[in-house]
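Amidophosphoribosyltransferase
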Amino acid sequence: MAGGTETHESLDMNADTLREECGVFGILGHEDASALTALGLHALQHRGQEAAGIVTYDKDQFRSERHLGLVGDHFSDADTIGRLTGKAAIGHVRYSTTGETILRNVQPLFAELDGGGIAICHNGNFTNALTLRQQLIRDGAICQSTSDSEVVLQLVARSRKGKIVERFIEAITQMEGAYSLVALTAKKLIGARDPLGIRPLVLGDLNGAPILASETCALDIIGAKFIREVENGEVIVCSPTGIQSFFPFGKQPARPCIFEYIYFSRPDSIVGGRSVYDVRREMGKQLARETNVEADVIVPVPDSGVPAAIGYSQESGIPFELGIIRNHYVGRTFIEPTQHIRALGVKMKHSANRSQIEGKRVVLVDDSLVRGTTSVKIVQMIRDAGAREVHFRLASPPIKYSDYYGIDTPVREKLLAAKYSLEEMRAYIGADSLAFLTVDGIYRAMGFDGRDNDNPQFTDHCFTGDYPTPLTDLSEDQDLVSLPRLVEVG
Ligand code: SF4
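Tokens:
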């Protein structure tokens, strides 16, 4: 079961990770609303690289710029920002799990409705969007996209409630799954978090202008003050007269996604009152307590493995060294190599730092293992650099179940830990030893005495299979029927 040989463009450490789906940002009452939104989205780019969009409201109409590609590719020129006039804006960066990567799925989506228009953007995934969409289409709805987020817009349009906020609330109380939503109307900026608070959303302030964002790093980049987290199940309404909160779902314990700490959120963000960097380092320390091994050097798999590797080194006392060097200037692959160059095993993005590896017993530390394809190549690269032993350590438990809450996970059959035992996984990646942080260990690293199985403190079903909400759209064969697939087959 030893791993395959490496080729030039394949040794990309990010190729085999879970991908977070999307980041949201909104601001109300600021001269530079669109420029600040572009900066906020830039800080959230790690949450989605496929497309970006900004919608403003000015002079009785929405103004929209939505593009495929990175924020910097489209929102760094003055003309685009110049067209986005108005003192209120919302924005979105996208990584698609439902809905193809086509312009009509790029968010924010917006519609002019009786009683005033609304624009929305969404981080997460609705697990009953398909069922609702089919009903809406049967009732005559005309859908502009194949994105699950549009279902909220359709339900707002159908609501017979008086005020737009009431219509928005009526719409989201019909949704299941995980979501952080930011919406814009003529006068208001609205935010909402699902009843369990699975996806993150924070409130900030910039000189009196309220801001809603997926992570605090989007506040830091523009010098905005962090006010608080938007609570689970809260609908927050910001208007020129102040901020109001509604709790249409009643209060229930929060269960935020634990993977935001493991990989999705930026290390400099504060999530749930915790520094993401500190939590990852603590996960590394707990990993060393649980899985330590005789070795000469701790080497992180860059970049996401760095904080945990530092923690592992601090706890074990084994020196930490940058044994893998990342080339930050790869961008688009510049030359298509000939077979001869490929055979050379050219490493475009990452290469081994031989002086820190040769003749040593190496512990590689990474944040998580999904399919295992990249781990095979990393182990081979470290062996080729002369390592005497290679031990692989993961600062999270084995991923055995697919996610349906906005994370692009492979189908279960492709998850290495769903099909192989620990020993088979070790043999597959070609390491001398392999170990994962335990589920209880990850809760200890978060400051608890372990997982509370009666009332789990976090959403953790990719490790435990304990899905926290109904999965209405789930098909017989345990695969969440995604919108595009059904749309295609009609
Ligand atoms: S499966 Fe659950 S814990 Fe894992 S990434 Fe998804 S929401 Fe987070």
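Residues 276-291 form the longest helix (16 residues).
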